[in-house]
Design a protein that fits this description.
Elements: H1 3-31, H2 38-42, H3 45-74, H4 81-99, H5 101-118, H6 121-134, H7 139-150
Helix pairs in contact: 1-3, 4-5, 5-7
């Protein structure tokens, strides 16, 4: 979960909490035929408890939604733009000295296109992590680079 998503989740939760608090407090105020001040109606224990419970449900649904989106993204062959550009920039930077700038750009663009066709985004993240940890490409990725170099 990115910091932006976390901030949006917290902000949304606070807004829902206060909105629900106002609704329940207003209902309580009207049901008691205005015998209590509105502020006391808002701060009743059951109003606050129900508002907190409702906000908790909203948070839970938001987290589950974010997790579902993440899992769906991992199973997809469509990669986020940041992943594609990051791969391409890193690939071009590491192969420009051997191939030249134009050839490195062609090779890396071809490679990421074929990688997207063969591997899901989750698999791509896994072999990227393995590459950073070990410094070695898997046989399947090496084959893709070999095919792209021949073109």
């Amino acid at each position: 979960m990115t910091s932006y998503q976390l901030g949006a989740l917290v902000g949304r939760t606070l807004v829902v909490f206060f909105f629900f608090l106002l609704i329940l407090g207003g209902i309580s105020y009207l049901l008691q035929r205005r015998r209590r001040p509105f502020r006391q109606a808002l701060l009743r224990w059951w109003v606050i408890t129900l508002s907190a419970c409702f906000s908790g449900v909203v948070v839970l649904l938001s987290v589950l939604s974010l997790l579902g989106t993440s899992l769906q993204q991992d199973a997809s062959h469509v990669y986020p733009e940041e992943a594609v550009s990051g791969f391409t920039e890193s690939c071009v930077a590491s192969s420009t000295s051997q191939l030249g700038s134009a050839a490195a750009e062609r090779l890396c663009t071809c490679a990421i296109t074929e990688i997207q066709q063969v591997y899901t985004y989750g698999e791509f993240k896994q072999f990227s992590a393995d590459l950073q940890r070990t410094g070695a490409l898997s046989a399947g990725i090496t084959d893709i680079f070999t095919r792209c170099a021949r073109q």
